[in-house]
Specification:
two-stranded antiparallel ribbon, single chain, flat, mainly alpha
């Protein structure tokens, strides 16, 4: 009877991970450390990686990367913002 049971993965919405960290946090940690190792300054690279990880984690906050992108969309002008193809956020009334 157990052969007919189909299991559905419960974690389809989870972010991709680098080691134990989500991708954005992993890059904030590993990129400075990798550059430090490549420049033969491993200790300062690792320290800089930990500092950038902690700063990124604090900046990102509870809402995650989606909240940070929404903040950039609503606060930056369209020409500078990360989503240039989206409608301008400064328009308050759209007429059709």
């Amino acid at each position: 009877m157990q052969e007919n049971v189909v299991r559905i993965e419960q974690r389809l919405q989870d972010q991709a991970r680098i080691l134990l960290f989500p991708v954005d946090e992993g890059l904030a940690l590993l990129a400075p450390a990798g550059v430090g190792i490549a420049l033969q300054s491993a200790i300062s690279g690792i320290i800089l990686g930990v500092i950038s990880y902690l700063l990124w984690k604090r900046l990102k906050g509870e809402g995650g990367l989606e909240r940070l992108l929404a903040l950039l969309y609503w606060s930056l002008p369209r020409e500078v913002g990360p989503m240039k193809s989206w409608p301008d956020s400064s328009v308050t009334i759209w007429r059709g």
